[in-house]
Amino acid sequence: MSEISPEKLILGTVQMGLDYGINNSSGKVSLGESFKILECAFDSGIRILDSAEAYGDAHQVIGAFHKAHPDKIFEIITKLPHQVDAGIYDKVLRYLNELEVSELKALLFHSFESYRKNITNFDVLLELKAQNKIDYIGVSVYTNSEIETILADENVDIIQLPFNLLDNSMLRGQVLKRAKDKGKIIHTRSAFLQGLFFKSLDSDNFITKQLNTELTQLNLIVTNSNISMSHLALNYCLHQETIDNVLIGVDSEQQLKENLDALSYSIDSEILHEIDSIKANNPKLLNPSLWT
Ligand SMILES: NC(=O)c1ccc[n+]([C@@H]2O[C@H](COP(=O)([O-])OP(=O)(O)OC[C@H]3O[C@@H](n4cnc5c(N)ncnc54)[C@H](OP(=O)(O)O)[C@@H]3O)[C@@H](O)[C@H]2O)c1
After folding, report:
1. Structural domains of the chain, count
2. Cα 37 from Cα 60, distance rounded (Å)
3. How many angstroms separate the CA atoms of 215 and 217, rounded?
4. What is the pTM of this model?
5. How confident is the model over 159-195, as pLDDT tens digits?
6. Which end of the chain has the smaller Cβ count within 10 Å, N or C?
7. Ligand 1 pocket: which of 111, 248, 252, 258 to mutate (most atoms within 8 A of CB)
8. Has residue 1 been placed in a domain?
9. CA angle 286-290-292, nearest 5°?
10. Does residue 291 lie within any of the structural domains?
11. Atom of ligand 1 nearest to the CA of 192
12. pLDDT > 90: what percent of the chain?
């Protein structure tokens, strides 16, 4: 299979603003490491960052990086807070200021609920678009039925959803195809299911125990195919034709470099088909927002 462009990756920034992740023992990434990650990402060809007002001081970290590196300005996708219902125009002006950019690549609603409550606020979003303050409008979702509802809304350009080795084509294939047929831009997150794929199978973690059968299947594929879990997880997402961009989160420059290596890794289509055939017994367990 051909090499994939680093521009297909979007770097997530929740790890730079908050303690985050099911396998994370070291807490929020330090400012120094965040700068190293951002510099490595830019120098490697990643051009888009995913952020949110809800990600602690992630906006400020990105803004500080831009100020220190005016020749390395990322395109930014950010999200309104879950509870937003007014003042969107002023918020966007504040975001531009915090992030040290003149426009946003995209402004997303952080959940389907938030999108639904703000249907009457779309004139503000369209005005921001007309003024070139945002390029695209999007919604971050979890379920296929949320996606189906959004497909009918021509004002929504981007749909961001979870997609990975277990939340896979078996569960998402058809709805993604319909979204592409409607001209939507598809971004996926949770490529590593927050780091769950790297957890030891005998971990006491409740989710690891509940998903033990499926995780054992994945680990067997890793062993038999002689490919690392990170390369398998990333390549599976990157090779989907219906997905425009794949978000990844990292805790260190080292992890980012390992993940970037996956771009030049050729993965057998038989292995991809093997993953397509894995059907999670209880798909609700794949939704990290229900883990706590
Ligand atoms: N609703 C939403 O819109 C929403 C929700 C969640 C996230 N996001 C966005 O998506 C981004 C990514 O978050 P995610 O949940 O999708 O995370 P993810 O990419 O599925 O997992 C990221 C975690 O996996 C581990 N990891 C990554 N590369 C690794 C490697 N090579 N080796 C070992 N471990 C590795 C790291 O955690 P440890 O090292 O700590 O295990 C890292 O923090 C976030 O930064 C955020 O921007 C959006």
Report:
1. 1
2. 15
3. 5
4. 0.94
5. 999 999 999 999 998 999 999 999 999 999 999 998 8
6. C
7. 248
8. no
9. 120
10. no
11. 20
12. 86
